Structure formats: structure tokens, C-alpha cells
């Protein structure tokens, strides 16, 4: 096993990000008699379903152009507050309306907590600022929209990474077979179900290196 080996090697939703083929390689860190304990993303599990829902919602928000349309509307609204013609504001508000409706459909489909509440935070914030635009600072509002855009982009990447790291049944069986080939005895292998839940949360895998 090399100069560094351990009695316990564990990973909770981590090692599979290196590719499911590499999971069995964790056995090389085990000392004789050592235990490998893993929780892996399950492609049929509840976490995977939540990741896909969150990713879909974030992408649909992006495709609606809610943030750039809101930015354009606010710029025109601040101009109007300062005495400029209201027509650009009215036009920008009309262009934003379909995107607002798209966000509201997301809430109907997935609930307001989708995407870690980020969509609801954005939606409510835009509505609140719009109602009291004269009490806000232009640069602060536009900078907030930029931050929200960056946060949602990063969130989408995180959800895509989690979804892409999920392990299906065939891959899980291959992982178990790879561990067995490396001299591990499989103690437990299968879906993990939280108490009171009939949908699996993850794959649970416990294996012991032969002595």
C-alpha cells in the first residue's frame, strides 16, 4: 500500500468528483484490515433530483434574461426619477414583464425555495426596489444585480458539477467490483435511505481491506 496507509478512509460526496472510475482507487490508501466508508451521489437519488431541479430553474432564469432586463429597466427608472422621459422606462418595464412571468412559473413548478432561495431573493428584491425606486441608489442597485448574476452563475456550475458526478447502478457495481479486485471485502453496498424516507439519498459503500 506504499509508505502512507490508513485504518479508515472516508468520503462523503467528494471522491466521485474525480470520476467514478477513480473511486475504487481509494483502496490503495487502506492499511491491511482498514475500512473504506463512502457516500456517493446516486443518479436515482433525492439529491440528484434536487440538483437537476435547481440547475433547470437557474438556467431557465438565465434564458428569460430577467437580470439584464431588470438592469435596463432600473437604469431607465432612475433616469425618469431624475427628470428624463418616462417612455424608455415604460418600454423597459414592458419587456421585463414576460421574464417576471417566467420566474413566477418557476415558483409554481418548483416552489419558491428552488436554487437555494436565490431566485426568490432576486425576484423579491427587484419588486421591492421597483416599488420604492426613489429611495435607492443607482450604483448600489446595479451592483447588486451584477452580484446576483455572478452568484447564480456560480450556483449553476456547482449544481452541474454535482449532477455530473452522480453514479448510476452500473457504475456503482463496477466500483464494487474494482474494490474486490484490489483485495477489499464489501461489507455494505447499496442505496442509503434516510429514516422515514422511501427515496434513496445516496449510495452507501463500506469495504474492508483484507489482511
Brief description of this entry?
The chain has 211 residues and is α+β, with helices and mostly antiparallel strands.
**Main sheet strand line-up:** 1-2-4-3
Q: Please state roughly what percent of the residues sit in beta strands, choosing from under 5%, 5-15%, 15-25%, 25-35%, 35-45% or over 45%.
A: 15-25%
User: Number of helix segments?
Assistant: 6
What is the rounded Rg? 24 Å
Largest sheet: 4 strands, mixed
Q: Pairing-aware structural class of the strands and helices?
A: alpha+beta
- Helix-residue proportion: 40-55%
Q: What is the CA–CA distance across the termini?
A: 12 Å
Shape: elongated
The string of secondary-structure elements, in order, is: EEHHHHHHEE
Low-pLDDT stretches: none
Mean pLDDT value:
93
Number of strands: 4
Task: Give your account of this protein's structure.
- With 211 residues, the protein is α+β, with helices and mostly antiparallel strands.
- It is built from six helices and four strands, in the order ββααααααββ.
- It has helices spanning 46-64, 66-81, 87-110, 118-131, 138-164, 169-181; strands at 6-12, 30-40, 184-192, 202-209.
- Strands 1-2-4-3 form a four-stranded mixed beta sheet, with helices on one face.
- Helix 2 (66-81) runs antiparallel to helix 3.
- The longest helix has 27 residues, at 138-164.
- The model has no long low-confidence stretch (mean pLDDT 93).
Name its key features.
211 residues, alpha+beta, 4 strands, elongated
Fold topology:
Elements (H helix, E strand, L loop, with lengths): L5 E7 L17 E11 L5 H19 L1 H16 L5 H24 L7 H14 L6 H27 L4 H13 L2 E9 L9 E8 L2
Parallel strand pairs: 1-2
Antiparallel strand pairs: 2-4, 3-4
Helix pairs in contact: 1-3, 1-5, 2-3, 2-5, 4-5
Amino acid at each position: 500500500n506504499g509508505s502512507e496507509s490508513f485504518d479508515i478512509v472516508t468520503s462523503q460526496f467528494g471522491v466521485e468528483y474525480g470520476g467514478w472510475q477513480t473511486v475504487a482507487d481509494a483502496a490503495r490508501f487502506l492499511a491491511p484490515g482498514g475500512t473504506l466508508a463512502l457516500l456517493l451521489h446516486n443518479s436515482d437519488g433525492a439529491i440528484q433530483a434536487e440538483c437537476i431541479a435547481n440547475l433547470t430553474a437557474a438556467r431557465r432564469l438565465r434564458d428569460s434574461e430577467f437580470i439584464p432586463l431588470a438592469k435596463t429597466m432600473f437604469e431607465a427608472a432612475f433616469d425618469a426619477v431624475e427628470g428624463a422621459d418616462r417612455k424608455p422606462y415604460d418600454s423597459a418595464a414592458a419587456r421585463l414583464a414576460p421574464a417576471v412571468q417566467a420566474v413566477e412559473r418557476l415558483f409554481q413548478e418548483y416552489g419558491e425555495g428552488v436554487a437555494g432561495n436565490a431566485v426568490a431573493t432576486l425576484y423579491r428584491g427587484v419588486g421591492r426596489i421597483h416599488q420604492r425606486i426613489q429611495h435607492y441608489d443607482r450604483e448600489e442597485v446595479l451592483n447588486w444585480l451584477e452580484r446576483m448574476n455572478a452568484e447564480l452563475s456560480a450556483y449553476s456550475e456547482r449544481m452541474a458539477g454535482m449532477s455530473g458526478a452522480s453514479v448510476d447502478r452500473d457504475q456503482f457495481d463496477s466500483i464494487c467490483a474494482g474494490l474486490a479486485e484490489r483485495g477489499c471485502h464489501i461489507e455494505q453496498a447499496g442505496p442509503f435511505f434516510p429514516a422515514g424516507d422511501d427515496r434513496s439519498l445516496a449510495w452507501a459503500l463500506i469495504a474492508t481491506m483484507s489482511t
